Amino acid sequence: MPVEADYHIQIAPSLLAADFSRLGGQVREADEAGADLIHVDIMDGQFVPNISFGEVVVDAVRQSTNLPLNIHLMVREPDYLLPGLVKSPTDQVLVHAEACNHLHRTLSVIKEGGHQAGVALNPATPVAAVEEVLPLVDIVLVMTVNPGFGGQSFIPAALNKVKRLRRLIDENGYTVQIEVDGGVKADETAQDSVRAGSSILVAGTAIFNRRQSVAEAMREMRESVRGLGPDF
Ligand code: DX5
Ligand code: ZN
User: Fold this and answer.
1) Which residues line ligand 1 (CB under 6 A)?
2) What is the distance between the alpha carbons of residues 142 and 157, in angstroms, rounded to a whole number?
3) How high is the mean pLDDT of the chain?
4) In the chain, which end has fewer C-beta atoms inside a 10 angstrom radius, N or C?
């Protein structure tokens, strides 16, 4: 199927890979390099075996950009964090299906607050885990690594899940974007993700690394998916 000229792929640099000793500068670099969203990973040391940062650091990020924050909550029962973390009308809030006992309620609270809501799926979690909440969400985040750490390798089997989700979403006429997160580089991992039907690419170490500037990395990523769209 020919790709529509205006098919827009959003690139969301993940701050987990940024240099935290100069976080504000790194956020500005990503913003100036044309990032569409800033991906913010919140980890509680319970749902995932790692702790990242919380409200205070997210507030500092807000001082350096007006881009929407794509807030990825790798947190067990995250409802208690929402009031402190989610502050701007443009915030997008993503919770894990595996982490919420009452997923529908948590997503409803996010939507009632006027925010975009997303649901994230671990590599072992099937599409069926989100089927019933698709009418409620704006984004499904398909994890392409097991969450908790940056710099891991992309799990190719996740692409099938992206394709199945894309079909399910399109067949039902929902307006839901598919986001991929983990091991996405400016190569076939990004390209195959877009061809499978995702339109938001999260990239940590591919954007913040010692090899190149943030601007160069963003250009490379954008270039690698130029002209691509869902391939079915
Ligand atoms: C992993 C995080 C990712 C991570 C991606 O649990 O959710 O957002 O920062 O990092 P890379 O792109 O390096 O795999
Ligand atoms: Zn993430």
Assistant:
1) 14, 16-17, 39, 41, 72, 145, 147-152, 181-184, 202-206
2) 11
3) 96
4) N
